[in-house]
Amino acid sequence: xRVLMSTFMFVTLVKFTGNKSFCQKGTYMEVQTNGQFTCNxxxxxxxxxxxxxxxxxxxxxxxxxxxxxxxxVKLECTPEHNADIECVQGFYRVWHFPNDPCRICKNxxxxxxxxxxxxxxxxxxxxxxxxxxxxxTSTKPPPRKTPKHNLRVQCNGKVxxxxxxxxxxxxxxxQGEFYVCDAHNGSVFCSSxxxxxxxxxxxxxxxxxxxxxxxxxxxxxLQNCTRVNDGQYQDRKKDxxxxxxxxIVLACLIACLIACLIAVICFMCCxxxMCCxxxxxxxxxxxxxxxxxxxxxxx
Length: 299
Hints:
By secondary structure, the chain is of the alpha+beta class.
């Protein structure tokens, strides 16, 4: 029975074409030392969407973070196909590459335009600069005679025309991005901040990201530097400095108390000597001075 099942699985996973054999999608080819091979299912977290292939490994699935509020999972990853994401309402994707982010839809009202085509998960909003119901409901693009349809920007001394349908030049770049103008190729676009930099401004035209604040020595990390926020740190010496200040203040108070006590003792001693001299002049016995001192000094 096991032999029949193994033969059945081998026939379903392997297809012979001439003198060469191929594996089907959802599997990878494992070559044995004796020259034979088997088609094994892709492990969890990997996939292979090619038919009739001789790939010896599967591709890693697209990592989808549940913490990103700009998109949702459209298709889970299986051994036969990769995962796919879909932008939430108000965002869209341009190229649909695995790392292509969801961009915010263009707001026509901020430009004083009217919506010609609403924003979808795959296309940005198309704005129309002319007023009227025909413009707002028309499926045709805005007339070419209107120069506002294409945004012209200054880029390294050159005036470039940016396509509003694919680039967010009307609203600017998002957090974690910076504005790039390539005068050589005649294009403008938004690019992600490189490692060690951040941009916390939204809808901006900054041409570079800001450098992350270096972590000071003897400090604790309150927040790591990311593409959208700077790092925050706390000096470890602050608590110890407070203790040192308290110790210094207490030492000063104790020193003042000791100095006052010494001054009182000195004052009493001086008063005792004066009393003895005065008594001696009147030829009083010495023990009477002792009695007087006992009356002066507190018990």
